[in-house]
Design brief:
Elements: E1 7-11, H1 19-25, E2 30-35, H2 43-60, E3 64-66, H3 78-88, H4 95-116, E4 121-124, H5 134-148, E5 151-152, H6 161-170, H7 182-190
Parallel strand pairs: 1-2, 1-4, 2-3, 4-5
Helix pairs in contact: 4-5
Length: about 190
């Protein structure tokens, strides 16, 4: 049977955040996954998360577009280098500013890919995590949607967070212990 639902591109930040978001969205959309997470540090962590998502997508027969362009890393771009320079000089760059910059790069990449592939809708699994800044993600998603010309789908998936992690745990796939960037790794190591 042909899926007649509208197409949606789902930015997946990791395997652990994907199952329940995907399950909910497939009731309304023909969902394709999208991996673009150059914020993940170090490289071994990046590879573990990508491998887990690839395995999950194969098991679930879930199409996954992988965008791997290290030159597009938000941690290599000039804006981020300026922020790193400000930090070294003792000028504070807030966690909220770092997260906003990181979300912007990943959400924008997803929207641009959706536009390129003639997909009218996009969203992100970041919306399942109680640890993410939902207000900022929603604002950026809606702003980027207007700029790019595709529709951002906002849903508060947070009630599904632990159920999704359980799916990945039961499948014995890798689950990370921090958001992904070098700053979140440092924060986790302090605890």
């Amino acid at each position: 049977m042909i899926n007649v639902f509208p197409k949606l591109l789902l930015h997946s930040c990791c395997a652990g955040c994907t199952p329940k978001v995907l399950e909910a969205l497939t009731k309304e959309y023909n969902v394709t996954g999208y991996w673009f997470n150059p914020n993940i540090y170090p490289e071994e962590e990046y590879q573990k998360r990508l491998d887990a998502l690839k395995t999950y997508s194969r098991q679930e027969k879930y199409e996954l577009i992988i965008s791997e362009n290290p030159s597009q890393s938000p941690f290599d771009r000039s804006r981020f280098r300026r922020n790193k320079g400000r930090i070294k000089r003792g000028i504070s760059v807030s966690k909220t500013d770092r997260c906003r910059f990181c979300y912007d790069g990943r959400i924008r990449s997803c929207a641009e890919e959706a536009k390129k592939d003639n997909i009218n809708y996009f969203t992100t699994t970041l919306l399942v995590s109680p640890y993410q800044e939902h207000k900022i993600i929603r604002e950026l998603g809606e702003q980027i949607a207007r700029q790019v010309g595709v529709e951002f789908v906002y849903r508060d998936f947070r009630p599904m967070f632990y159920a999704g992690k359980t799916v990945i745990y039961n499948q014995k796939l890798y689950m990370q212990k921090y958001c992904g960037c070098v700053y979140s790794l440092k924060e986790r190591n302090k605890k």
